[in-house]
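Progress report, Aim 2. The chain analyzed during this reporting quarter is listed below.
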Amino acid sequence: MTTDDHLRQTLAALTDHLRDSVTQEIQNVATTITAWQDVRIAALVDANARLRESIRAIDRARTLTGILGALMDAATSEASRVAIVLVRDGRLQVWRSAGFASNAQHPLDLFDDDTDASCACVPLTLRGEVVGLLYADRSDAAPDAVAVWPAIEMLARHASRALEAVTAFRTAQVLARTEVRREKERVR
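Predicted structure tokens for the chain:
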């Protein structure tokens, strides 16, 4: 065997070995990507199921307190810390909070300069007027931490519509009772 033949044979063996190594590495990466995609798909399915159930819970609530409680529960399933702040007599007041080191009583208690949390603050409206806000943050550094904010916004908007519906229904009930009373008085 000549030196050239030996070099060709060695080069061919190295090329085969390199090809096999690269092929194996590509298969490993493909397996990892497939597993990651499966995990992401499962996470999205879970997130959609939570969102669907949260919207249903808000729909089942029949009182303003029930709606806000359902919103609080829903947001707590998506974020590390959550607070609902209401506007009362022109001032902000914490209605309920969860996940804070101390029970937040004042709106400024919600903000912590020491955290790098990703957060969302969504207004709660009634007939176009802001009556409160939903504050939520996540202290984890997961790459999908901001992916929950659209769900938080949808929940707050849905709760706002539910609050409007309950308020309109209650107003209609009061007006109907008043009208019945007036009719009874007129008949007498």
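The first strand starts at residue 81 and ends at 88. The radius of gyration is 29 Å. These observations will guide the mutagenesis work planned for the next reporting period.
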